[in-house]
Amino acid sequence: MGFSFKNFNKAQKVLTYVFQNKPALRPDALFSDGTRDYRIPQEPMPGDEVTIKFRTAKANVDMVYMICDGERYEMQVVESDVLFDYHAVTLPPVGTDRVEYYFEVVAGNSTCYYNKLGVQTEVNPTYNFCIAPGFSTPDWAKGAVFYQIYVDRFCNGDTSNDVLDNEYYYIGEGTRRITDWAKYPDAMDVRCFYGGDLQGVMNKLDYLQDLGVEVLYLNPIFVSPSNHKYDIQDYDYIDPHLGCIVKDEGECLQPGDTLNKNSTRYITRVTSKENLEASNELFRQLVEEVHRRGMKIILDGVFNHCGSFNKWIDRELIYENQEGYEKGAYPAKDSPYHDFFKFHDENAFPYNTTYDGWWGHDTLPKLNYEGSKELYQYILDVGKKWVSPPYNVDGWRLDVAADLGHSEDFNHRFWRDFRKVVKEANPNAIILAEHYGDPYNWLQGDQWDTVMNYDAFMEPITWFLTGVEKHSDEFRGDLLGNPDAFIGAMRHHMSRFHQQSIEVSMNELSNHDHSRFLTRTNRRVGRTHSLGPDAANENVNKGVLREAVVFQMTWPGAPTVYYGDEAGMCGWTDPDNRRTYPWGREDKELILFHRDMIRIHKENEVLKRGSLLFLYGAHKVIAYGRFDRKEKMLIVMNNNYEEVQLSLDVDRLGMVNGDTLKQLILTTEESYVLEPKLYRVENNQLFVSMPKISAIVLKAE
Question: 517 forms bridges with which residues in the sheet?
């Protein structure tokens, strides 16, 4: 990504040399970012004056300038401590336009620059700091601990709503009710149901609260035929198979029958208003109980496409003769939903199969927003409905959000409107998108709050600690333990976020689309259909997982635990990553470890809102600091299979000789310890001995 930790250190040495009039110049002491200490207010509104601060070593430079949208502002020293001077300038009231800036540091006849990548010898506008007036993200989400639940596989709290054998037909076969909770998912798993439901989530709230979870993220729970439910059938109602079935009439399909219009049991279950309204009411009660406990809950919004079972298209003819439902667009050209989909042959009615499918899948009809103002408004109303009373959900995770619509311009237009209606209904709701690649254009304050953090979290830490791609599809020995690749990727990709987006970014090690992180620690390439599910459990290293969790809980963003990761779950990528939570078979020590790391994260505000500095990088070793004006913490990871002795410069964190740091946790390959061992800064260095496969968290006393 154009960054090398070695080159960064080299640049600092060169800059130290070239400042002839300041031989003791400390380029490594230069610092600023978008946190609360260096931008006041951190999230300015139009009309606010904004004070920007910049740190230098004490009495170490002649002048610091802030270069802002072409204007040059001289900064003044407004505060000093034993190590640093803090320069500041207050900008005139900001308008509504984005404001970009960087810093110019002058000493004698020489000059250097500072931007999001740190100390630079030349200006690169790509990495300018940026203010987006009016862009704020929910305070409750900044550094909050999320927990992702794939509902069908979490806990079966009500067996009366279980999907039945052959209840309906989906993608080649009838549905299957799995009665062995511990059974591995089939290689073709989409129509297999284990019975997890909202009552099961309700039953486990004590467990989640004890773990330290603050926010529940539920994979889709609206009426849908698959267990993953990314093929929505009805956006207005919770699926009764996850909620309540109070009316249960009709028959399942007979053997050999593939026509879902004959699946009268299923039709009753998912079209009966009694079942749908009872399920919505159960969900309302769940949200109310979550809120009563001081927790939050967000839903998964699948708005790019729906499913072939959807009431608007009715490919399965489920709604064709049901009271209270309009004709679907598949069987009837005069359907009120005709323009919700793009048909390529208008002469193919009735039963027109020529509609657009997402990635060509006819089970996932792509929604045609450009062709229907009614659809456009309907989905905006859905977005508003669930964050409003009586449901009061705390936000949305948006599935394949950049794919919505048929052009990027239209996509941005839709998400601007979506943000407006959702934030008007619930100003504290979060809008969090699934996105692969550069999210910059969507994170300017008028669309998404943040993203599922693949580029600036999951991928770099996976490569560094395991050398395995996030699907377990590739092994890269050149990336395993490579500090230049890791730090370069982090610096570049984090620069594409505003600070308020970083602080709420969903930082996951695993999720429903990728292999379990614990499985990646075996450094094997494979999937369940090629190697079998048992291979995902073999030769895993819990010590490496502990390193990753320490990183997750001390890195900027919202650490998000995928259900069961804390209990030692393994699994290849989809569908093997969707195994059932192992109730009664949990790795209890790993659960305790997660609970302790979550506690450390929650007890230290600097881990949620503080600044970040890389302090050291070597083969399989990384050290970084989290700090603000009140707290300082140091985190070290050693992924080597041998002990490592480190001597770290911690004065960049504001520490001097005689200062002490207390050990909050030390993980090893075998376990972890919480004993509060003390470390002392001597000769301007902190000496740390790191066992093999270990991580440590230290806090300044």
Answer: none
Which range among 15-24, 441-450, 482-491, 569-578 shows the weakest confidence by mean pLDDT?
15-24
Residue 656 lies in a domain: yes
Q: What is the pLDDT of residues 56-92, one digit of tens each?
A: 999 999 999 999 998 999 999 999 999 999 999 999 9
Domain that holds residue 640: 610-700
Tell me, letter by letter, the H, E, C secondary structure of 145-172.
Answer: CEEEECHHHCCCCCHHHCCCCCCCEECC
What does the alpha-carbon distance between residue 59 and residue 62 come to, in Å, rounded to a whole number? 8
Residue 65 included in any domain: yes
pLDDT category of residue 46 using cuts at 50, 70 and 90: very high
CA-based torsion, 686, 493, 557, 128: positive or negative: positive
Query: Mean of the per-residue pLDDT values for the chain?
Result: 95
pLDDT, tens only, 106-122: 988 889 999 999 999 99
Q: Return the number of other C-beta atoms located less than 10 Å from residue 655's C-beta.
A: 22
Number of domains in the chain: 2
How far from each other are the two terminal CA atoms of the chain, in whole angstroms? 36
129-131 and 146-149 as β-strands: parallel, antiparallel, unpaired? unpaired
The answer to the question of residue 252 being in a domain is no
Last residue of a domain, one of 134, 159, 186: 134
Query: For position 638, which CATH number holds?
Result: 2.60.40.1180
Strands (E), 219-307: 222-223, 234-238, 296-301
Choosing from 73, 102, 134, the residue where a domain stops is 134
Q: Give the integer Cα–Cα distance in Å for 89 and 75.
A: 5
Question: Which CATH number fits the domain that encloses residue 109?
Answer: 2.60.40.10
User: Checking phi first, is residue 561 left (phi over 0); if not, alpha (psi -120 to 50) or beta?
Assistant: beta
Alpha helices in 542-584 (DSSP H): 542-554
**The Cα angle at residue 432 between residues 430 and 433, in degrees rounded to 5:** 155
pLDDT tens for 157-198 read: 999 999 999 999 999 999 999 999 999 999 999 999 999 999
